Amino acid sequence: MNSPTAPPALRATGLGRRFRGGWALRDCDIDIPAGSVTALVGANGAGKSTLLQLAADQLRPTTGQIRVFGDDPGSTASRERRAFLAQDKPLYPDLTVAETLRLVRELNTAFDTEAAERIVRAGNIRPRSRVGALSAGQRSRVALATVLAREADLLLLDEPLADLDPLVRHEITALLMAEAAERQLTLVISSHVLAEIENVCDRVLLLHRGEVRLDGDVQELRDGHTLVRGRAHEDTPDGLPPALDRAAVVESSRTGRLVTALVSHVPATPGQGMPSQDAPGRAATPFVWDQDRWETAAPSVEELLLGRLRAARAADADADADGYGDADGERSAA
Ligand SMILES: Nc1ncnc2c1ncn2[C@@H]1O[C@H](COP(=O)(O)OP(=O)(O)OP(=O)(O)O)[C@@H](O)[C@H]1O
């Protein structure tokens, strides 16, 4: 069990990393509790791989610091407690699967060879097959086997499911979840497959242009938002009800006469017409106005993240139109 005073699995404070093209990560404050399963999401170039590489000591910060179970990622203690699967899943193509597993065992103090072999066998991969002759999905399975068998407490997985067919993705996800539960692992998984996050992760961390835009418990985030759908209002340009505080509207879209909006329960300014929460942590009560015309529902994680991602992109477009963007593509926070 994790004691209440144990350090988080991953903590970033004022973390920034700059490359020649600009900041890949900037001013990030992040706490990922031990034992949690966090989905790391964001558009291409948002900074997900950079964050994972910083945690895996493959990069050093430009500003701030990052700690793995309280230690510098370069320390021996930290190296032994975390395992990293890079996005390109580097493996030696000329080695056989069995030789690959042997090599990883030799390079690591703790390695459960039997577990690795079990995972590989479950994918009908022959130990004598050359890695270079495997399909992308089979290579992903071997790479995941080498990481899962490391007996680390924190797994940093950069798009581990990207090359897998839906059936295998499902199997590997189930395997990850079973291992996570049994060994009380902390998982940080970057993914673009938003629909699959719902059943897998208890936390989400959304990055946008190197900044943290959303970070928290999935259920609390869902409880903090409402999806509103209905026939467009004639008297407002966005079709939303006049009484709805626009500061609370994360994002809205209109298709013909139908308007859909993602509404946050924490508006920038309190306003009339907001959904009220009758108890902390409980789902919001429905809107009090126009009930015949507006449906409200709790958003799925995919709807919530899509809304947040679209809102971030729209804010970028507005900033670009205002001439906010810098010459090297950096910008002020939207
Ligand atoms: N080694 C590097 N040298 C220069 N720039 C880099 C380097 N690594 C990343 N970047 C830049 O940093 C930014 C963040 O990249 P990163 O790979 O972390 O994004 P990502 O969220 O993982 O993207 P994707 O979803 O496409 O994998 C991008 O603008 C990228 O071009």
TrEMBL record:
<dbReference type="GO" id="GO:0016887">
    <property type="term" value="F:ATP hydrolysis activity"/>
</dbReference>
<dbReference type="InterPro" id="IPR027417">
    <property type="entry name" value="P-loop_NTPase"/>
</dbReference>
<dbReference type="InterPro" id="IPR017871">
    <property type="entry name" value="ABC_transporter-like_CS"/>
</dbReference>
<feature type="region of interest" description="Disordered">
    <location>
        <begin position="315"/>
        <end position="334"/>
    </location>
</feature>
<protein>
    <submittedName>
        <fullName>ABC transporter ATP-binding protein</fullName>
    </submittedName>
</protein>
<feature type="domain" description="ABC transporter">
    <location>
        <begin position="10"/>
        <end position="234"/>
    </location>
</feature>
<dbReference type="InterPro" id="IPR003439">
    <property type="entry name" value="ABC_transporter-like_ATP-bd"/>
</dbReference>
<dbReference type="GO" id="GO:0005524">
    <property type="term" value="F:ATP binding"/>
</dbReference>
<keyword id="KW-0547">Nucleotide-binding</keyword>
<dbReference type="Pfam" id="PF00005">
    <property type="entry name" value="ABC_tran"/>
</dbReference>
<dbReference type="InterPro" id="IPR003593">
    <property type="entry name" value="AAA+_ATPase"/>
</dbReference>
<keyword id="KW-0813">Transport</keyword>
<keyword id="KW-0067">ATP-binding</keyword>
<dbReference type="InterPro" id="IPR051782">
    <property type="entry name" value="ABC_Transporter_VariousFunc"/>
</dbReference>
<feature type="compositionally biased region" description="Acidic residues">
    <location>
        <begin position="317"/>
        <end position="327"/>
    </location>
</feature>
